[in-house]
Predict the 3D structure of the following.
Amino acid sequence: MTARRSTRGVALGLAAVLLGGLLAVVPSPRPAAADGCYSWSRTLTTGRSGSDVRRLQVRVSGYPGYGRRLAIDGVYGPNTRAAVRRFQSAYGLAVDGIAGPQTLGMIERLQDDDCTPISFSYREIDEGCGGSGFSGGPIGAAATRSAALITLWQLQALRRALGSSPIVLSSGFRSHACNRAVGGAPRSRHLYGDSADMVGTPGLCAIARQARYHGFAGIYGPGYPGHGDHVHVDRGGASWRAPSCGV
Ligand code: ZN
């Protein structure tokens, strides 16, 4: 969750300077209240680039549009603008495609201090065989964790679109050892942190259908062998197979 946005801190500081002049008091600079994860310090819009844009892209990665994925490249182009517009619409904000104080403030309220979205945690997606800290896979712990963070923000968008009813992750990242132990496919996307298995009250078909809008390249659910009791999503696959759901 979030504390005050830094821009508000700047505004308060400016007010203190003006008031200080009237009262002949010299205010000491005070740091803006920090979000436990990250606070954006400027409005982001088309043409901007940088690590702050990249962080924004991670958090709107669940809004690429039907059948699409948002590139996390640190460049605020038309696809990022469109994703911001969808995010704004989902949260009842003014839809202008510009990530200003309202939009960034909403994102800060949605993020936990470890940068995961409020409805999901690293621990849930590192479930595998009890959790390995994202180590033991083919791409290393740091890259796996980064991939998992994007997945969690996609899931937050999916959850929101389904009316914020609970979605439970029944599997996420698996180390090689874990994947072997559970009989996963040798090249399972579960090795990469970009996938999750889910159950939830909206129903499996509702999840499978809605997932098409939130950046998942692979979707497997009811009607696909072995997926009658959960929905699998990932970013590395290339097909949607949930025939019992019309997907
Ligand atoms: Zn799966």
